UniProtKB/TrEMBL annotation:
Pfam families: RHH_8. InterPro entries: Arc_rbn_hlx_hlx, RHH_8, Ribbon_hlx_hlx. This is CopG family transcriptional regulator. CDD domains: RHH_NikR_HicB-like (cd22231).
Amino acid sequence: MSDKVQELRPKAADSEKITINLGYVDLGHVDLLVQEGFYSNRTDFIRTAIRNQLDRHNDAVKQSVARHQLDLGLRQYSRQDLETVRAAGETLHIQVLGLAVIAADVSPELARETIASIHVLGALQASPAVKAALSDRIR
């Protein structure tokens, strides 16, 4: 055995799993396109369809992001970030389109003291304890 064993940190997921219900005929059409080689699998078809719709509505999305003052993409909140907010006597109103991450070392108490509201369109990653502490502030 080697003394140089390193524990690997689990990689944060860069996607979120969703489930959809699809009628049998639509599903058959998807399977036919996969079978004919247009797409590698059902997931490839669905991702492509979603991206096409997002591209189609790109201008409306941009306007909405600006109107709602959403941070776009990945936004991370570290313990140090929140301690700085607390020291300044301020609170955060988190608004993210994408992924919001509250660091694992953030205590539920610190989160409640510093985060006034959370609105995430996409996904929120935080410890179960922090999510529970902020449950009345998450919409």
